[in-house]
Write a structure and sequence with these properties.
Largest sheet of chain B: none
Number of strands of chain A: 0
Radius of gyration of chain A: 24 Å
Structural class of chain B: mainly alpha
CATH architecture of the domain at 99-259 and 287-302 in chain A: Orthogonal Bundle
Number of domains of chain B: 1
CATH superfamily of the domain at 99-259 and 287-302 in chain A: MetI-like
Oligomer: heterodimer
Structural class of chain A: mainly alpha
CATH topology of chain B: MetI-like fold
CATH topology of the domain at 99-259 and 287-302 in chain A: MetI-like fold
Order of helices and strands of chain A: HHHHHHHHHHHH
Number of strands of chain B: 0
Helix content of chain A: over 70%
Number of helices of chain B: 14
Shape of chain B: elongated
CATH class of chain B: Mainly Alpha
Number of helices of chain A: 12
Order of helices and strands of chain B: HHHHHHHHHHHHHH
Radius of gyration of chain B: 24 Å
Strand content of chain A: under 5%
Shape of chain A: flat
CATH architecture of chain B: Orthogonal Bundle
């Protein structure tokens, strides 16, 4: 297991290197010159001398390799430059918005795991009954209904028609429930499908038949063997879906006019605030890579049979 | 494989001529399995209808997508405007029909980009192995390290807003999945006797890849194309919804939804119909794709 951990950690290093190169390259692939974009922000325009000073301040007049080195060194210190729109530090702008997004993603994921897990389990245990069909229709809906539309329909139904929650804003759980539903539905659909098929798989296993044969009650078989099987795809999907949740947050935060990194990202792109875009993309990739790393490591701990390919 | 073995196989599966016609047989078997799956057939038909509607938009739509009817602004669905009208008095049925042309085109072209580049890279990685393989696959790992929506956003931020950038962004962000699947299938196909035989008789690499290996990865790639198209339509519409894709006044489903948000209270139909259109198309593709997967690989079911 020690060797596995070392190798898995080792495999992460080139990925992080590639991520840093790609994110760095992003800024340089921007059409037009960064400095002239900044110049557009100032009312009076910039003299060529001023443009050169900014170029020098940002280090853009140095060779690309040096710039990359500075970028990585800065990133390691938590310095990703400043938004040239608000002049706020990119790291603090992102960290300021992170809790709101994590709250939303956490609530969405909780909904997805509880509902998706329960539906998948019921669908498998009551295979080929109306409950199975209903759960699979629910799941098909989650895979086919875009979040921005389900979000808008939830707002229409619960805020505009029924007036149970405020249309926008609001605080506490009322403001969180609808966005979490919109965000979590897609993940719930995936989880329901995965749990269903892995539970069906377990039900076919020898040891489950033996458990029944030796007179264990169906409830005990479910609790002891089947639930365990249902847990594995959930753990896997949480890792895979963290990325989708982050991507979904972009849409859901916009629909519900919530604070968060997703909304920050969209605004940064619309305002061409490239340092901010770069910071958000880097942070999102970092979270995603580290989360999947920890999930892979937790597999090794959960299931000693797993080792590096 | 010795002649006797071929003979033996043929005896097992039927009369000797059946062995020669294995490929058409497989295709017929697949078609039979697929046609038996009613929801998959329905999905296919619905999607074909959605596609045809988009193609025939100028003939089918009651009005041009940007024709304004000033006597009926924000009119609810009714006889003269089955889906109602928006704040500029534009007929929503016509806009939904025309919108499909852009939303579906984004989905189709994005998938073509992803499948084209992804399969090519996967073929190369799987066939040549060694450092080429490592280089390509490490690069795919890096791309997979970005949540795909974030990757698409990053590409759009570089290319600027618009329909073409969105197609490229959505396409590029789903290349790695195709590469992985294609590479995996090549690795399996490479070990088969007929590929070894093709080598022996001196086939060129391009011929081996194109004629002997590519047909083998057809099935998994087809499944990925359908799921990829469903996802691409949603992501494309999402980017337009965020204001990064199709720009007003273009009729596009995501764009129309974003426009309808403001009128959710007074004219919910502006938001309802484009969303229904996305849902119908994506659901049809998903049903079709599920049927395809089950028919191509019954063991997965």
């Amino acid at each position: 297991m020690g060797a596995y951990i070392v190798r898995r950690l080792g495999a992460t290093v080139p990925v992080l290197f590639g991520v840093s190169v790609l994110v760095f390259a992003m800024l340089h692939a921007v059409p037009g010159d960064l400095v002239s974009l900044i110049a557009l922000r100032s009312f009076a325009g910039l003299t060529p001398a001023q443009e050169n000073r900014i170029r020098h301040q940002l280090g853009l007049d140095r060779p690309l390799v040096v710039q990359y080195g500075q970028f990585v060194a800065g990133a390691l210190r938590g310095d990703l430059g400043r938004s040239y729109y608000t002049n706020q530090r990119v790291t603090s702008a992102v960290l300021e918005q992170l809790p709101a997004t994590l709250e939303l993603a956490g609530a969405g994921l909780t909904f997805a795991v509880v509902i998706g897990g329960a539906l998948g389990l019921v669908a498998a245990l009551r295979r080929d009954t109306w409950m199975d069909s209903a759960a699979m229709v629910f799941s098909l809906g989650g895979l086919s209904i875009p979040m921005f539309w389900s979000g808008l329909m939830l707002i229409y139904l619960f805020a505009v028609r029924l007036r149970w929650v405020p249309v926008v804003g609001g605080t506490g759980w009322a403001a969180l429930v609808l966005p979490a539903l919109a965000l979590g539905y897609d993940a719930a659909a995936f989880i329901a499908r995965m749990v269903r098929s892995s539970v069906l798989e377990v039900l076919r296993q020898e040891y489950v038949r033996i458990a029944y044969a030796k007179g264990l009650s169906p409830r005990a078989v479910t609790m002891r063997h089947v639930l365990k099987a249902a847990m594995i795809p959930i753990v896997t999907l949480v890792g895979l879906h963290a990325g989708r949740l982050l991507g979904g947050a972009v849409v859901v935060e916009t629909v519900f006019a919530r604070q968060g990194i997703g909304r920050l990202a969209v605004e940064a792109i619309l305002y061409k605030d490239y340092f901010l875009v770069q910071g958000i993309v880097l942070l999102a990739a970092l979270i995603y890579v580290l989360l999947n790393l920890s999930i892979d490591l937790s597999y090794a701990w959960l299931d000693p049979r797993i080792h590096y390919q | 494989m010795t002649p006797q073995m071929v003979q033996g196989d043929a005896v097992l599966i039927g009369p000797p001529h059946a062995a020669r016609g294995l490929a058409p047989n497989r295709a017929r078997l697949f078609a039979l399995r697929f046609m038996r799956n009613r929801s998959a057939v329905v999905g296919g038909i619905i999607f074909a209808m959605v596609g045809l509607t988009a193609i025939l938009a100028p003939t089918l739509a009651p009005t041009a997508p940007d024709a304004q009817d000033f006597s009926a602004m924000l009119a609810p669905p009714g006889a003269s405007h089955p889906f109602g009208t928006d704040e500029q008095g534009r007929d929503l049925l016509s806009r939904v029909i025309y919108g499909g042309r852009i939303s579906l085109r984004i989905g189709v072209i994005a998938v073509c980009i992803a499948a084209g580049a992804g399969v090519l890279l996967g073929l190369i990685a799987g066939y040549y192995a060694g450092w080429v393989d490592s280089l390509i696959m490490r690069w795919m790992d890096v791309m997979l390290a970005f949540p795909s929506m974030l990757l698409a956003l990053a590409v759009v931020s570089m290319l600027g807003s618009g329909i073409t950038p969105v197609m490229i962004a959505v396409g590029v962000s789903s290349i790695p999945q195709f590469t992985r699947v294609a590479r995996g299938s090549v690795l399996t196909a490479k070990e088969t006797d007929y590929v070894a035989a093709a080598h022996v008789v001196g086939c060129s690499t391009a011929r081996i890849l194109g004629r002997h290996i590519l047909p083998n990865i057809f099935a998994p790639i087809m499944v990925l194309i359908t799921t990829g198209m469903a996802a691409a339509i949603i992501t494309g519409a999402a980017l337009s919804f965020l204001g990064l894709g199709a720009q007003p006044p273009t009729a596009e489903w995501g764009n129309m939804l974003s426009n309808g948000r403001v009128y959710l209270e007074n004219a919910p139909w502006i938001t309802v119909f484009p969303g229904l259109a996305i849902m119908t198309s994506v659901m049809a593709i998903n049903l079709f794709g599920d049927g395809l997967r089950d028919a191509l690989d019954p063991q997965l079911k």
